[in-house]
Amino acid sequence: MVTFAIICASNQNRSMEAHHVLSKKGFKVASYGTGSAVRLPGPSIDKPNIYNFGTPYDHMYQELKNKDPKLYSQNGLLDMLDRNRKIKRAPERWQDTTSIFDVILTCEERCFDAVIEDLINRGQERNRPVHLINIEIKDNHEDAMLGGRAILQLAQMIERVNDIDEDMQRILQEWKEKYPYSILHCVTFF
Questions:
Q1: What is the CB-side half-sphere exposure of residue 87 using CA atoms within 13 A?
Q2: What is the mean pLDDT of residues 118-136?
Q3: pLDDT value at position 124?
Q4: Using alpha carbons only, what angle is made at residue 1 by residues 22 and 118, rounded to the nearest 5 degrees?
């Protein structure tokens, strides 16, 4: 079975939606963020809610619910955090994991770049290839849902082949014909 990692900046919206969709279909999947901290919208653009990676989703949910239940219900954060806390305990930072994956999917180019840099910094000592694919998904609830479904379709296509390395370019080309996302792809190493 192919192992997947899904990555966005804060391990909240896009990566967790895809994690949710893939795990419901039985895929072996984990999700991460690449940022220095978890940032969630606050009462204004210059006042985000900032948490450390590892802070439980339930803690964030309770805190925001107590701060302003109307605001955080209307902007969808409470629903998102409720979904997240049912999937795993807390957001995880990519740079802190030692897990190895066959395919890593990022949801924006800066996360793609951060993963490449991190893998290079690790020294690639295991000489184990990994397909790193960026699918550019806007960071809002609707696009995260659509992106999660598109990632599921890609994961299903990848899971069906016998040789990921041999078939990846064809898979990505076929997938790109169905979905309008901008993608990047490279093979790097653990």
A1: 27
A2: 94
A3: 82
A4: 75
C-alpha R_g of the chain: 17
* Token representation of residue 92: 């995880």
Q: How many CA atoms lie within 13 A of 171 on its CB side?
A: 21
Q: Tens digits of per-residue pLDDT, 128-137? A: 999 999 999 9
H or E segment to which residue 24 belongs:
helix 14-24
SS3 114: helix
Q: What is the pTM of this model?
A: 0.96
Rounded-to-integer distance, Cα 55 and Cα 184, Å: 31
Structure confidence by residue, pLDDT tens digits, 166-189: 999 999 999 999 999 999 999 999
User: Angle, nearest 10°, between helix axes 77-87 and 14-24?
Assistant: 50
Among the listed residues 122, 77, 72, the one whose alpha carbon sits nearest the alpha carbon of residue 97 = 122
